């Protein structure tokens, strides 16, 4: 079965500094990987997804992630944090693609705190 | 357009009671998913519908949980004889196909006293 491990439960940054949220995956085949963001009292929103095209994936709001097969990693980065980026971020792998649907398997989440 | 909506947004019930949680997917989306998010955890898959049928219900924790989607649109998650351990946020997502991006609703926060 596919799984993801988010290495940090909390990350604190100052506004304007870079963001790095770490994720490692385990997959028996070429995975589909995602990052979702969850703001308080709002639904999960897709930031970006990797589906074996380009290894560097650009998403919304200036976020990007790089798929590194040799390191089994899919870290999320942003050059400059904004106060509105404060939220919970989930690294996600898709299971059962062969069955014709995506059973999303979520990590435990990383809470991003942004200070002025 | 309108996103996925879920009602109620909050539900408080007593142990042993029956509850129903409703999900209205994005119009035209054939695929519908239910997930459960316990405190401090990521969401966990419960069930997947393609049209009216439950194509995969492997995530339902036990037979107290049941979900329906009779007309291929709105879905209801039903929990019988609720237990305190059922307290969680129940999330619904829909997509235009099984392999397409899933769009999530805001969730229903269930508290079993």
Return the CATH topology of chain B: Immunoglobulin-like
Structural class of chain B: mainly beta
In DSSP terms (H or I, runs of 4 or more residues), the helix count of chain A works out at: 0
Q: Which regions of chain B contain 5 or more consecutive residues with pLDDT less than 50?
A: none
Strand-and-helix sequence of chain B, N→C?
EEEEEEEEEEE
> Separation of termini of chain B?
37 Å
The low-pLDDT segments of chain A are none
Q: What proportion strand of chain B?
A: over 45%
Q: Using CB atoms under 8 Å apart, which protein chain pair has the greatest interface?
A: A-B, 23 and 28 residues
CATH first level of chain A: which class?
Mainly Beta
Largest sheet of chain A: 6 strands, mixed
Radius of gyration of chain A: 14 Å
Task: Describe the protein.
- The complex is a heterodimer of chains A (116) and B (113).
- Chain A is mainly β and 116 residues long.
- Chain A has one domain (3-115): Immunoglobulins (Immunoglobulin-like), CATH 2.60.40.
- Helix content of chain A is 0%, strand content 53%.
- Chain A contains no helices and 12 strands.
- In chain A, strand 7 (56-58) and strand 8 (64-68) form a beta hairpin.
- Chain A starts with a strand and ends with a strand.
- Chain B has a single domain, classed as Immunoglobulin-like.
- In chain B, 0% of the residues lie in helices and 49% in strands.
- Chain B has strands at residues 5-7, 10-13, 19-24, 31-37, 44-50, 53-56, 65-68, 75-79, 88-95, 103-104, 108-112.
- In chain B, strands 2, 4, 5, 6, 9, 10 and 11 form a 7-stranded mixed β-sheet that branches. In chain B, strands 1-3-8-7 form a 4-stranded antiparallel β-sheet, with no helix packed on it.
């Amino acid at each position: 079965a596919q799984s993801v491990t988010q290495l940090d439960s909390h990350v604190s940054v100052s506004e304007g500094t870079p963001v790095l949220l770490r994720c490692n995956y385990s997959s028996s085949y070429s995975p589909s990987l995602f990052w979702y963001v969850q703001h308080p009292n709002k639904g999960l929103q897709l930031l970006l997804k990797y589906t074996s095209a380009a290894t560097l994936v650009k998403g919304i709001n200036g976020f990007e992630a790089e798929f590194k097969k040799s390191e089994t990693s899919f870290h999320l980065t942003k050059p400059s944090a904004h106060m509105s980026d404060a939220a919970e971020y989930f690294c996600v792998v898709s299971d059962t693609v062969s069955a014709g649907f995506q059973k999303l398997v979520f990590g435990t989440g990383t809470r991003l705190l942004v200070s002025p | 357009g309108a996103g996925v909506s879920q009602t109620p947004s909050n539900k408080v019930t007593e142990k042993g009671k029956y509850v129903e949680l409703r999900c209205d997917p994005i119009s035209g989306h054939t695929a519908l998913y239910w997930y459960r998010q316990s405190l401090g955890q990521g969401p966990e898959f419960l069930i997947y519908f393609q049209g009216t049928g439950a194509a995969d219900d492997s995530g339902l924790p036990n037979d107290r949980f049941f979900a329906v989607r009779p007309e291929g649109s709105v879905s209801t998650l039903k929990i019988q004889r609720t237990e305190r351990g059922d307290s969680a946020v129940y999330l619904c997502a829909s997509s235009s196909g099984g392999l397409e991006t899933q769009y999530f609703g805001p969730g229903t926060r269930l508290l079993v006293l």
